[in-house]
Amino acid sequence: MFANDRSTLRQQYVEAWRKHRNGEPLSPLESMIGEVVAEHPEYHALLEDRDTVANADWQPEDGRTNPFLHMGLHLALREQVSTDRPPGVRAVHQHLARRLGDHLEAEHRMMEPLAEALWNAQRSGSMPDERQYIEALQELLARHR
Question: Which of 30, 60, 61, 25 is nearest to 47 (CA)?
């Protein structure tokens, strides 16, 4: 789906955003990227500056969020919700979006459990623990009742 190197991945975002802005035909993935970028105006200028995109670095210790990680988590969540994989993720998203009144805010809240599941899997060299992930999402939902 995505390239393995940082530069190519970033250029996919730049190109999808350019096509989206210009009303050009988009692949399904480009369309998803364009929608996510459109919902994040704070990233528009960045994605319109190829030099900055190619060379920028975002380190957690600097207190800055990596926009590509952030947007990538949105894409991952949307894919999960559309396929209901792992089972139950769609229901959590729907309930949370209803409670918060906004699908984007629901995704923002769901990002932390997703990022943690991915980080744990990377650290252990295994697949993400779907049961633990769904439990974390259920806990999130319970906090927003």
Answer: 30
